[in-house]
Amino acid sequence: MTDAHALQEEEARYQAVLALDPLNKGALEALVTHLHDESWRVRRAAAEGLRRLPGASEAATRLVAVLGERGETGARNAAAEALVGLGDASVAPLIQLLSHADPDQRKFAADILGQLGRRGAEGALVGVLADPDLNVRVSAVEALGHVGSEPGARAVEQLLKESSSLLRLAALEALAQLQWPPPLPVVVPMLAEPQLRRSAYRVLGLIPQMAATELIIRGLSHESRSTREAALAALGIQVGVVDATLRAEIDIEVRTALKRIPDAVAFVAKAFEAEEVPLRAGALVAAGALREASLAVQAAEAAREDRLLREAIRTLSRLGSEAGRELLGRMAELSLPARAAAAQALLELADPSYVPALSALLEWAEDDLRAVAVKALGRTQSQDAVRPLVMLLDEPALAGAAVRALGVLSGGCREAVLRGLEEAMERKPSPAAVAAFAHAGGVTALPTLRRLARDADPLLRAAALDAAVDVDPSVGLELARGALVDESSRVRAAGARAVGRVGDKLASALLKRALQDEDIAVQLAAVEALGECGTTERVPDLEVLVRHPDGALAGRAVRALARISIVRPDVLREAAHHADAEVVKAALQAGAVSAEGVALAIELLGHAGWDVRAAAARVLGDSGGRECLNAVQFALETEQDTLARRALSDAVDRLSRR
């Protein structure tokens, strides 16, 4: 038969398997027959087809029988794959197979149960740990490494006292996989056995004791490179479980041990290239302890593994300013995760010499990285950082960050910051520049703020008012009086906000006009201000606004009344019948602590909006009594929306426990 003909026949058999209808009578036996095919493609297709059969339990029992066909290696492996694919249906027949007279069958059953990973098999596997056949016991241990909980881990731990090195090795690996630390005295002797050493170090790393740390650190000086790597991996594991207060002591001990190794830096650098995550974690700990700047790029690249991000940032922040310069110089070469880790570390390493490189980062397209560069510039405490930060005050995306950075910078070089901001104000003032100038200048900025409050640009008038309130509330209130009658609605809104922040006793009178302003943005600011300052004189005006057709204004009025703690039942009910669902939800929130509000929430379980029904359920879950349970259960039975059902379910659960 030619190769081409053989391939055609294989393809025909493969297509025949794919075409089998799993509902047809005889489909099970047909697929089992194909498990014996000489082609792995056909066997794989048959195994996948068995997963689609309606009678999973029958299929599992039949497949277990295939496992006993000695000499049919391909069929047995395909049957094992199919049993894993059948999931829970395979557990019972495989557990039964664990008591088969043939140790080969018992081993097969343990192996497949391990692949299934079902906790229900744990008890049976623990029982097999006493099997007379060593290979069966080893397979059971390995399976428990996948499915075990505390009982399985404790049973495996007992095997560390066995004489068989193979069994003890399997037990160590299983405990490492289960993250179960055995007693330290049991592990120590195994560190001296070459065939067990690497696995013994893995579990040693799970023990959060300084005595274990000392043994790990001792391993870092071992003459064997493989032992040093095992110890380094153990260190990477242990720093994840040890008390944070011990980290400083661990770092000192690690540094001392590594300094005794002639090729320590090269050893750690090589460890960063390993596939094993714990080994790379250990490399991070070692690099931080060594304070070796040449390892900065590799430490940053370790952040490509999510589990190592935090340790990578910690390590980078310990490598010193020279490492920071290395990272800044090679930022373009770093991967995105490494770049993010480096950027965070630079906040800790910030050094005056970084200013040029950080300024260059401001030209990058990545806003997250630029924002970190802005923050780092503020921390450099360098006068050279003033100019790049001031230049950003006109860029909306980074203006806020630049204001904050200049505030930090002014702690160490206030005069330079003020000069830079004064120049910016003279050249082309912006709202962000006004805010930064007020923050840095304090009361000395008030004359400039008074002047800007009369500027032709309404944006600057509003910014000057906001800044003045922060510097001196009395000056802010003085400027707010004029702002409330300004021609610009933006300035009038700023005036209303300022009154609310100051909370003066005259707030009620000052805000009366703003509540009736022709511009809704001013009304919104006035309502918010009344809620903030807590004045009660304008409550009737707020109650009128609850009926306003604009949902934003009506909702804010409800929230303001709630902050003042005056929401009459009739007003609450009026808000609950508003056309805007957001107002209804505001009413629910406002009434959540009152009997009227709870009654209203029950009523709103039948609202047309799913979000309102969900909000009502949450109110009842928080504030309702057991008497509300029937209403919520009835609503749950008829609810169709998934998110509303979730809220109702939670409410039923909470109410049932009261």
TrEMBL record:
Positions of transmembrane segments: none
Molecular-function annotations in GO: oxidoreductase activity
Highest taxon of the lineage: Bacteria
Pfam families listed in its UniProt record: HEAT_2
InterPro entries: ARM-like (IPR011989), ARM-type_fold (IPR016024), HEAT_type_2 (IPR021133), PBS_lyase_HEAT (IPR004155)
SMART domains named in the record: EZ_HEAT (SM00567)
Record function comment: Catalyzes the hydroxylation of the N(6)-(4-aminobutyl)-L-lysine intermediate produced by deoxyhypusine synthase/DHPS on a critical lysine of the eukaryotic translation initiation factor 5A/eIF-5A. This is the second step of the post-translational modification of that lysine into an unusual amino acid residue named hypusine. Hypusination is unique to mature eIF-5A factor and is essential for its function.
Protein name stated in the entry: HEAT repeat
Organism the protein comes from: Stigmatella erecta
High-level lineage: Bacteria, Pseudomonadati, Myxococcota, Myxococcia, Myxococcales
